[in-house]
């Protein structure tokens, strides 16, 4: 067996798998190296919500690449991908004003809705919303299916996987591992929050840390669709596209008065449906070495607020977990080339799944996104 290939991808998260998928489309021989025996990290712990529309203007071309990549991968690998969009209920006039400004800014990427219409779309006709919006370009996948299915398809297509293999160093086309050295014409390293272990100088330069998120899987009542995707006012204050609107500062002030507990736990209150149930969350806490404990008050708060919007009177919790992803207070994306044959790609915000195929395109093409 040869240890040489056209491309080595370090990391089997969705960004690594997306990069491998794109390289395979180009006809390259690809090896993926990962310390686990299957995708089990951040890529299966998220909402499965591809929120392309809410991202910053500067990244929209990359978001379009990402959306196209998701559709091609889903068709090839056979995993579920719904083009059902995102619904956002506006519970106050300020939230509605942010949505109106965003709709004027983005045009037909945003459809404004009446309060009754957004309530009906969310399965809760009694929702006292003052209005809302639908983002038709957003997509849904099942995070517990998508990455494992894509990995299995790539394996069947001839991509080589080196599982249970820890990478110890990367440079000039050589990947040193606990199973010996592998070589390639090009190496793309997608280590997520483990960047510190391979490229500590990069991690320190960008202040990369770990973000932990309190999340839960609930039973999904029959009145809620499997392809449900709901963002809320906290999302409008968080995602860069919405947050650039003129009324966003007023929204942040209103949230601090109206929902101080959500603001205190840095919540992005949202929910998505998957075959196994209803995913709800999430809070955000930041540390270089996070503790594994879940605060029950935070978990209950997120469940209470999300299910109230969806008309779920008696939520039944099936699972809880503390999700993790790489974060930086200074940038959304680390895309560096420490040598001519090595690219390091880490999405340092909660949009890695959304932009995975787009960032993979950047890593393989050598393009950059200044200001992101």
**Can you tell me the number of structural domains?**
2
The oligomeric status of these chains comes to single chain
Rounded to an integer, what's the Rg over CA atoms?
A: 20 Å
Count of DSSP helices? 13
The coarse overall form would be globular
Residue-averaged pLDDT: 96
Class by helix and strand content? alpha+beta
The fourth-level CATH homologous superfamily of the largest domain is FAD/NAD(P)-binding domain
CATH A-level architecture of the largest domain = 3-Layer(bba) Sandwich
Distance between the termini: 41 Å
Name of the level-1 CATH class of the largest domain: Alpha Beta
Let me know the number of strands: 20
Instruction: Give the CATH topology of the largest domain.
Output: FAD/NAD(P)-binding domain
What is the strand content? 25-35%
Summarize the main sheet: 8 strands, mixed
The amount of helix comes to 25-40%
Unreliable residue runs: none
Pfam families: DAO
Domain FAD dependent oxidoreductase: 6-363
Protein name: FAD dependent oxidoreductase domain-containing protein
Keywords: Flavoprotein, Oxidoreductase
């Amino acid at each position: 067996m040869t240890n040489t290939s056209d491309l080595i991808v370090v990391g089997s998260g969705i960004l690594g798998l997306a990069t491998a998928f794109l390289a395979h489309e180009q006809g390259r021989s690809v090896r993926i190296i990962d310390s686990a025996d299957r995708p089990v990290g951040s890529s299966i712990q998220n909402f499965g919500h591809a929120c392309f529309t809410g991202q910053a203007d500067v990244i929209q071309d990359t978001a379009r690449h990402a959306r196209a990549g998701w559709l091609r991968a889903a068709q090839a690998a056979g995993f579920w991908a719904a083009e059902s969009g995102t619904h956002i209920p506006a519970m106050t006039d300020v939230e509605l004003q942010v949505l109106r400004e965003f709709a004027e800014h983005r045009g037909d990427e945003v459809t404004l809705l009446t309060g009754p219409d957004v309530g009906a779309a969310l399965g809760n006709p009694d929702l006292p919303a003052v209005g809302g919006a639908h983002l038709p370009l957003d997509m849904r996948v099942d995070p517990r299916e998508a990455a494992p299915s894509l990995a299995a398809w790539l394996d069947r297509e001839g991509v080589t996987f080196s599982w249970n293999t820890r990478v110890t160093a990367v440079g000039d086309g050589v990947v040193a591992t606990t199973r010996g050295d592998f070589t390639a014409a090009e190496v793309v390293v997608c280590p997520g929050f483990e960047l510190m272990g391979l490229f500590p100088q990069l991690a320190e330069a960008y202040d990369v840390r770990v973000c932990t998120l309190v999340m839960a899987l609930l039973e999904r009542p029959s009145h809620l669709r499997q392809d449900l995707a709901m963002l809320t006012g906290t999302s409008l204050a968080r995602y860069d596209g919405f947050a650039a609107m003129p009324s966003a500062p007023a929204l942040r002030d209103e949230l601090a008065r109206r929902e101080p507990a959500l603001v205190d736990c840095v919540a992005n209150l949202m929910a998505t449906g998957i075959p196994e149930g209803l995913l709800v969350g999430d809070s955000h806490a930041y540390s270089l070495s996070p503790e594994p404990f879940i605060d029950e008050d935070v978990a209950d708060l997120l469940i209470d607020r999300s299910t109230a919007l969806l008309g779920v009177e008696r939520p039944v919790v099936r699972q809880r977990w503390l999700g993790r992803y790489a974060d930086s207070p200074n940038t959304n994306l680390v895309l560096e080339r420490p040598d001519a044959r090595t690219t390091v790609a880490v999405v340092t915000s909660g949009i890695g799944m959304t932009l995975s195929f787009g960032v993979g395109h950047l890593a393989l093409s050598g393009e950059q996104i200044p200001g992101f």
